Amino acid sequence: MPTRSRWAVHVLIVVGALVMLYPLFWMISSSFKPNDEIFADPGLVPQTVVTDNYTDGWNALGVPFTGFFANSFIVATAAVVGNVLSCSMAAYAFARLSFRFKGVWFGVMLGSIMLPIHVLIVPQYTLFKALGWVDTFLPLIVPKFLAVDGFFIFLMVQFIRSLPRELDDAARIDGCGPIQVYWRIILPLSSPALITTAIFTFIWTWDDFFSQLVYLSDVSTYTVPLALRAFLDSSSGSTWGPMLAMAVLSLVPILGFFLIFQRRITEGISTTGLKG
Amino acid sequence: MSDLSRRGFLQVGVAAGALALAGCAGGGGSGGAASLQFAWWGSTARHNATQQALAAFRKKRPGVQVRTQFSGWDGYWEKLATQTAGGNAPDVIQMDYSYIGEYARRGSLLDLGPYLGKGLDLSGFAKDVVDAGKIDGKQYGVNFGINSMALIWNRTLAKEIGVEVPETFTWPEFGELSKKIADKAPKGVYASEDGAQDGGAFENWLLERGKMFFTADGKLAYDEKDLTEWFTFWDGLRKAGAAAPPDVQATAAGDVQNSLVATRKAVMDFAWSNQLTAYMSVTKDDIAVHAFPTGEKPGQYYKPSMLLTVSAATKRPQDAVALVNALVSDADVATPLGSERGVPPSSAIRAALEPKASPSEKLVYAYIESLSDKVGPLPPPQPLGAGELHNKVLMNVNQQVGFGKLSIAEGVSRFFDEARRVLK
Amino acid sequence: MPWFAGLLLLTGGPILASLFLSFTDFDLLTTPSWVGLDNYARVMDDPHFGNAVRVTMIYVVASVPLSGGFALLVAVLLNRPMRGVGVYRAAYYLPSLLGGSVAVAILWRQIFGPDGLVNDLLSAFGIVGPSWISTPEYAIYTLVALHIWQFGSPMLIFLAGLKQIPAELYDAAAVDGAGKVRAFFQITLPMLSPIIFFNLVLQTVNAFKAFTPAFILSGGTGGPADSTLFYTLYLYQEGFGNFRMGYASALAWILLLMTAAFTALAFRSSRYWVHYAD
């Protein structure tokens, strides 16, 4: 019996996965359809297969997509490095160290996630304008190195707090200072959280439209989401086919990033050391 | 702790700086103070055409650098508002008719009046076409494409149903026609979208009765009775199955591909002539433009599909005006633009470009010309908040009435309550 | 901490600025002018405010527990050694990868539209379904469904949390003769409670300020008849659409207070059910 129920679960997982993948199939199929067929016939099998969407789309904005991918890659990678380093340090401080007004700072950090970007963008823009950073990647990258992302700080605090404190104490008895405890104990042991942070930061930065739109104006600095949205205009004719073709391509890096790094979550740490 | 973090911070700071340099080396600050920033929204065809026009402009004015900033419609206004608030507005701004009053009245745009005849040559424009760029008597904008309200209709669908759409019809005749179509149409297909929520249709209906949206001093120029009659007319059509019911109408939210004409749920949509190309691009059906229902007085007028404006904060007004002028009046620069933004306002450019227009653009040319003896004068400019009232509020109240959450009388009084709240 | 100054400037600055702006009449294009508490008083007679709070609360209450529960279930299923488990994880994460893209909006119309998939299924049983996506009574629940479908982020966080539970605990339980179900309740849930708490708090905060789903599905209107006018969508319309950024900032700070009150409650309750190792 257990094998049969295991099979049932497996079939359920496969069917569910297909349902989840449907939009991907739809995007791929539509990216091979002519523009006027995409909405007229939403089925998965194109009546006429065209590949122009890919060739046209790649150069549709006068600048090849290579540059947009490179820009997105720079921004997303820098954001990953920044978030992983700074948020883990901040989280370690919140979870293990004691300092003045810790509770207040924690509250402020959480509060900063609760305001919608729409009311922050104008003051933020004014600030970055004063720093001369508008039209560069700095407004999108530098904040990540300053641990401004409360989501990830809180996430890592929760992970660090589920590590037994005896580990720290043991290390401290061996003569480790707080930095060494962070570097040798906390960082390796919370690698699932670090990898989760890396995955989310990469994907969310790659998909982020609003702040990239506001801070980047010149087409040579455009990232993939900006380029994709430049295909769509409700007041004139949107070029859906090329947009969907490029959207399919833009999924490749994030899907790849996910596939590579999700393994690390599972393989990550051996748990033997955790017995303390 | 602090030791490590300081070192780490320095390292990553250097890395970030290097990355940012790599990023902005290609564009960004290259022009410095000697460059103009030109912002527009559109899709790929417009982006490419505009880049070509700018290349032609650079040849004529080699001293002027033009940096571009383009996107689709979504996000364009948020970015423009943020840039303006941050004191960093683009020098030349493609502007929508519904926003020009908001920007001009708040002092964000340059009055181009002093440049008329001195760098800005609008001599090829009809008077109304020039005046369409005026707010409170000042020339804040230059028409960048002539436009008018239009019934978009799905000719293929009409043929399948077996109905002819006559040359002209009045609003009551439109009602009869719609009921006739509804009788013949299969289930789930309606003669018309629910026009009650369409500001353009409502304005047309008012103008034909000798009324209008606003008086010259920015007060509402119609009353509860007019709106009640308008809602009642459409309520009748909805109940007769001639106009789309609210739940079907609400599926049309968003872009043109969701519109009832494109999804074959209605034969007719209330729209704008420059949207024809967008409609044709998302369906294989034969799509045509038709004038709105007619009345005692002219209900249609020529409106700019979009305008060119100059930021009040520009450091180089002369160059900005030169760019605006070239885009609308210099054949060498305007020719690459084609008719993609609408029918060109200058008669000379229009004559040069019409033969090169695409099939859908030719239909628009013919439509705009066919209206020439039917259009009335441009109504007075709208007060602040007008766009919100006749787009959002009208649609919302009509939905509340359509779904039976408010009676017509309640809907009308809700609308006028909101008008008091919204208009300045 | 050396980065503190930068942190304060870059996040604290805009946050304080938005608080300041909430006491001003700010139309984005001209200089803000101080109006004291006017914006907060305006909320009292704004007919859309109450509606926006109501719609948002429905969304929070319906979507957070459902998507969290679903995410935990799938995470447990996908935490077992299985061939190609990475591909399955990617497949289940894909809806979240697409985020607020147009493909999602189009797809949701195909499923919940008047002649969508759901109604096709219902018609097999002789039921004529409504147009779910465009009827005020149901439209909000199609957004809840969308949120549940995009459960990838909490799922991944649960997966990471499950990995941190020492395998020895399960071995010991097996020796004691505990079944899988008992092990789940006696080991998995308590050990995972810090992560469950995190997902609860963050999913709720994000649901309170949800914007994109309603924006893409209603074409930015919050319709039909304001039934999907989320709080943040309304605030965005006021700020950018109607040039009332001062009022929008006040709305944002009221949202912050509501969210903070909820979060404080959650932290208060966490003493009784969240188990930390420290």
Task: Characterise the protein shown here.
The complex is a heterotrimer of chains A (276), B (424) and C (278). Chain A is 70% helix and 0% strand. Chain A contains 14 helices and no strands. The longest helix of chain A has 32 residues, at 65-96. By secondary structure, chain B is an alpha/beta fold. Chain B has two domains: 34-146 and 304-364, D-Maltodextrin-Binding Protein, domain 2 (3-Layer(aba) Sandwich), CATH 3.40.190.10; 149-300 and 385-422, 3-Layer(aba) Sandwich (D-Maltodextrin-Binding Protein, domain 2), CATH 3.40.190. Helices cover 45% and strands 12% of the residues of chain B. Chain B contains 17 helices and 13 strands. In chain B, helix 9 (224-239) packs across helix 17. Chain C is 72% helix and 1% strand. Chain C has helices at residues 4-21, 38-44, 47-77, 85-98, 102-112, 117-124, 136-149, 152-163, 167-175, 180-208, 212-217, 231-241, 245-273, and strands at residues 24-25, 33-34. The model of chain C has no long low-confidence stretch (mean pLDDT 91). Chains A and B meet through helix 2, helix 4, helix 6, helix 10 and helix 12 of A and helix 1, strand 1, helix 2, strand 2 and helix 3 of B.
Strand count, sense and barrel status of the largest sheet of chain B are: 5 strands, mixed
Helix content of chain B: 40-55%
Termini separation of chain B: 57 Å
CATH superfamily (homologous) name of the largest domain in chain B? Periplasmic binding protein-like II
Number of DSSP-assigned strands of chain C: 2
How would you state the average pLDDT of chain B, rounded? 89
Oligomer: heterotrimer
**Mean of the pLDDT scores of chain C?**
91
* N-to-C order of helices and strands of chain B: HEHEHEHHEEEEEHHEHHHEHEEEHHHHHH
Overall structural class of chain C, as computed from helix and strand content, comes to mainly alpha
Radius of gyration of chain B: 24 Å
Shape of chain C: globular
Taking pLDDT < 50 over at least 5 consecutive residues as the criterion, the unreliable ranges of chain B are 1-33
Which strand-content bin applies to the residues of chain B?
A: 5-15%
Q: CATH fold name of chain C, please? A: MetI-like fold
Strand order of the largest sheet of chain B: 2-1-3-13-6
Assigned CATH architecture of the largest domain in chain B: 3-Layer(aba) Sandwich
User: What is the total number of structural domains of chain C?
Assistant: 1
Which percent range fits the helix content of chain C?
over 70%
Count of DSSP H/I helices of chain B: 17
